[in-house]
Each structure stands twice: as C-alpha cells, then as structure tokens.
Amino acid sequence: MSRVGKNPVEVPQGVTIDVAGGAATVKGKLGTMKLPISTEVEVKLEGSKLWVKPLNESKQARMSWGATRANLRNMVQGVSTGYVKNLEITGTGYRAAVQGKNLQLQMGYSHDVTFPIPEGIAIKCEKPTAISISGFDKQKVGQIAAEIRAVRPPEPYKGKGIKYEGEHILRKEGKKK
After folding, report:
1. Do 56 and 103 belong to one domain?
2. What gap in Å lies between CA 95 and CA 82, rounded to an integer?
3. From 56, 90, 121, 123, which residue has the greatest number of CB atoms within 10 Å?
C-alpha cells in the first residue's frame, strides 16, 4: 500500500484539472503542465480533491500509484504558487548578474561563465552573491539550480563556491606544520 497515494491532492481555487486521453492537464495562474497517466492507475476529480487509485494489485500499479499522485501534487502546487531555489555564492571576487536572457557568473576562471536562462524559468540576482531561481516546474527549477551550482561547487577547505541556501558544507582541516 502506498502511504503517499492514499491521500488526495487538494486543488486550490483558480486551478483547473482535465483528465482525458491518458493524460492530466493542470492549468493555473502561472502556467499549464501536462502529465501522461499510466494505464495502471485511475485519476478522478471529486469536487476540490484529486484521487489516484491503482487498478489492480500488481507491482507496477503500486509503484505508479504513489509516483503519479506525487507528480500531480507537484504540478498543482507549481501552477498555483510556483517553486523557488536560492543559491549563495561565497568567495572573493565571485559574483553573478543577470544580463538580458543570460546569467553571467564570475567564478575565478580566466573567463566569465555565461548561462542561458531557459523558457519558463526566472532568475534574479538581488545581490551579486545571491541567485534566486523560480518557475512552475519543480523538476526544471531543481535541474537549473544544480547546473548553476556545478559551475563551481563549494570546496571543503574554505567553503568557496556556489551552494544552496541553507546547505551545510563539511569542512576539512588544512595542512599541519
């Protein structure tokens, strides 16, 4: 039994869900998302609650049950409130700035790193050492944040680099005399 799948997905005001043709379409104020539904599960909208139920007791049906419910919940939250990931930059001379449709990163390399901002994602730099990534697709926001962090991941000796907000970097002791 899926503990995640048993619970319904609350659909807030202003979000419409259409389940037809083997796919669920979620529309909200921030955008529209579509999810293909497995043939192993059934999705029903009852009032303001979205229920996901397995059609049989096979292993594939049980796996799809919780995953489908979690993906639908992420889509509903994404089109209604959106997702935000914040990154912090630590290090002397390390900075970021948004220029047009690109994110310019000065990370101590011999050249600036230019990161193109994809459709559906908004990137803001309130300070030169803080990057805020927002959008309605949870997977896309997390992927972009991971790609930006990979430009200069934090190193364990001084903690210099790009890290997630609130991320704890395990520090190592330096050389001993």
Report:
1. no
2. 26
3. 123
Instruction: Give burial (CB, 10 Å; 0-12/13-18/19+) of 39.
Output: exposed
pTM (two decimals): 0.87
Whether residues 154 and 87 share a domain: the answer is: yes
**Residue 82: how many CB atoms within 10 A of its CB?**
18
CATH number at residue 51: 3.90.930.12
Q: What is the pLDDT of residues 2-18, one digit of tens each?
A: 677 888 889 999 899 99
Q: Indicate whether 41 and 92 sit together in one domain.
A: no
Cβ-proximal residues to 174 (8 Å cutoff; 6+ apart), any chain: 157
The low-confidence residues of the chain, meaning pLDDT below 50, are none
DSSP 138-159: HHHHHHHHHHHHTTSPPPTTT-
